[in-house]
Prior knowledge:
Elements: H1 2-18, E1 36-37, H2 39-49, H3 51-70, E2 77-84, H4 87-90, E3 94-104, H5 109-175, H6 181-216, E4 225-226, H7 239-249, H8 251-272, E5 278-287, E6 300-308, H9 319-363, H10 367-383, H11 389-424
Parallel strand pairs: 1-4
Antiparallel strand pairs: 2-3, 3-5, 5-6
Helix pairs in contact: 2-5, 3-5, 5-6, 5-8, 5-11, 7-9, 8-9, 9-11, 10-11
Amino acid sequence: MKLFNIKLSSMICFILLVFGRPVFAQVDTTTIHKKSISLAAFLETVKTGNLGYAAEKFNVSIARAEVLGAKVFPDPELSFGLEDVGERRMKMGYAFNSGLSYNLELGGKRKARINIAGRQAELSELMLSDYFRNLQAEAAIAFLEVQTQRDLLKVKRSSYEKMKQLSTADSIRFRLGAITAVDARQSRLEAAGQLNEVFQQEADWRIALAGLNQISGTADDKSGNPAADLLAFDREFKLQELIISALNHRADLQAAIKNRELSQGMLQLAKANRIIDLGISAGVTASSVVANSVAPTPSSGSFTLGMSIPLKFSNRNKGALISAAYQADQTVVQYRETELQIQTEITQAYFNYLTTRKQVKQFSCGMLEDAREVRDGKIYSYKRGETSLLEVLNAQRTFNEVQQNYLETLKNNAVALVSLEKAAGIWDLNL
């Protein structure tokens, strides 16, 4: 009796699986139809809304403020004093004195500080420009990633809808005895598996979209729906021209030059600090009447003018001067390293871009159309009973892989172009 109940339960599950109406989950398609936004419009949003870029701008303002601070002269010093020489006991009176002193900097110290602050401000502007160069490329790549993930989601949804229709048809055909129960179950399982892929792809798209929102400086889903013609990411370049362009326009290379000038300014300041400064002082002293009976003295006043010269024994230690000289030499080497690094980056990005262009052209030779025709032909033959379900599934998987590879190749080609223009210090992707 127990064995009979088990067999009956298994039979009921089998009947519900095969003979019942296929039930498929609904896929959310509302957020995928947002208002489209071009790459150029998105980059403008990034320029005005990215929080990291906004924070970097303060470095420029701070450096400009430090230029104003470097122009300040040393402050003079004003002093006052009162002297009691025994007024109550010996009636010697009082003495009042006041003085003004000023430290006169020599050797061009102030000028050297102003030059250093000015170069630091220029360096901050160049670093801000280089920050935006990297941010622009990062934002463009994130934009392309979201668009590709969205297009992959469309492909997987389309594949799922196709498989769902086939599974529904197979359920009817099984009832009519046209196919076996195994084929009906296989098509149903295949549709369920593809639905899981749709769910995962939708999660990948939303994750990429969240990163896009962060770059644009928005806390929620307001970046829009990326819409760029990936086939338009096609340019003709010559490697040597790109290298020359980078050496003329790359902000980080210009920053390396400015850093070299800054180190020279630091060396000049170190030399100027070894020159002595003069201390200039002036004072006035007023003495009251001395009423002492032994030596009475009328009130009097005096004026003093003085100068102090420091004894620069510290100049025997040339550590600061030697350190500044080594730093100047270091920046020369760093400039050469930056120059070589730029040439290497461009060369690598150039050949990577050439490779992706060839891969895109390979798909234009009819791969997509061939895969689609094979898939449709297999489905047609399967419905007529001329081929097996396995062949249909293989054709469907091949078509999906070709579509996905095509989208990934288009994205890789666009990313390679973005990376190449970033390396060359140019930008003409107003798509």
